[in-house]
Amino acid sequence: QKEVEQDPGPLSVPEGAIVSLNCTYSNSAFQYFMWYRQYSRKGPELLMYTYSSGNKEDGRFTAQVDKSSKYISLFIRDSQPSDSATYLCAMMKTSYDKVIFGPGTSLSVIP
Amino acid sequence: NAGVTQTPKFRVLKTGQSMTLLCAQDMNHEYMYWYRQDPGMGLRLIHYSVGEGTTAKGEVPDGYNVSRLKKQNFLLGLESAAPSQTSVYFCASSYSGQVSSYNEQFFGPGTRLTVL
Fold first, then answer.
1. Partner residue facing A43 (CB), from B48, B90, B99
2. C-alpha B97: how far from its chain's center?
């Protein structure tokens, strides 16, 4: 079993839709959770960072962590074509630990 | 600032050939990383460096060597390329190894390597 799992998609939604992207993980020691966005043929860039359980909001993006279920989510409100990318979840056990990445979910937002 | 740059962008090798991938960063970051990205596998850490002159193994180090002779450069070498090393290679850097909202890993644009 992989430590971090994501549905690879592709996920295709109409412009303006609410998008839900999810990751599950197996190691309860993970405490730091991140979402990276990767446009086609580019390197990943950090989108959101959260520590432990709870929600964090940044503009149209909300990151949610449920440590009891070992489940994290990224919600995108009012999705735009510019949100079309692959979204990678990532996590660490301690703030100095190596980052473990999920395989990514490909999202297409159709105008 | 250029951020993190990688050279070359594309390369095709034959089995057994050697090559070096160059990563450079102009952000004065201490930590640098080499990852490979394969379909369905996500990013996997090959080697990393916590400062000039230091290197350490990551998750998948076999078949690769690295050097960090200068703070701004991190080199990844393949001594005898194998088809299993066909992948997209990403370099990243961060101020330190600690994750926070203000200390993220910055990634380069990637090198697409094919080994025939």
1. B90
2. 16
